[in-house]
Amino acid sequence: MLDPLADKLLVAAALILMVSLQMIPSWIAFLILAREVIMMGVRMAASAQRLALAADRYGKWKMVLQVVAISAILLNNAPFSLFTSFPVDLTLMYAALVLTVYSGYNYIKNNYKLLHLDDHSSHR
Predict the structure, then answer these.
(1) How many Cα atoms are found within 13 Å in the side-chain-facing hemisphere of 120?
(2) Residue 2 — very low, low, confident or very high, per pLDDT cuts 50/70/90?
(3) For 93-112, how does the pLDDT look when each residue is reduced to its tens digit (9 = 90+)?
């Protein structure tokens, strides 16, 4: 249970650092961190209902791509800059952002019915 939290804290710290050093736009960090806060809320709602919602493959790939993108940005596009002036690091970050948003959407879509969030209709 602490391992995913440690991953999120490391990613959050790296994103905040990169924003403060103007390595990435703040809106990218905001969207990635907002997704994590929303997912934390979904997991807390599931936990309150004694449900364990497993991470899906998109969430796992999201984490891998985030780490690769963060590493490339912190390395200032190295080693890619040896071969091209193309911003591979920022491209990876945009790809990580897209996968982050998609994985959050997919996770909620697939688990919404399990969470019984729409139980207010059954009280009529």
Answers:
(1) 2
(2) low
(3) 999 999 999 999 999 998 88
Q: 116: left (phi > 0), else alpha (psi -120 to 50), else beta? A: left
**Residues 94, 86: Cα–Cα separation, whole Å:** 14
CB burial of 34-53 (b: ≥16 within 10 Å; e: otherwise) equals: ebbeebeebbeebeeeeeeb
Contact 73, 90 (CB under 8 A): yes
pTM listed for this prediction:
0.86
Ramachandran quadrant class, 68 (left: phi over 0; alpha: psi -120 to 50; beta: rest): alpha
* Distance from C-alpha of 27 to C-alpha of 33, rounded to nearest angstrom: 10
Name the token pair of 83: 């071969």
Residues 5 and 37 sit within 8 Å (Cβ to Cβ) = no
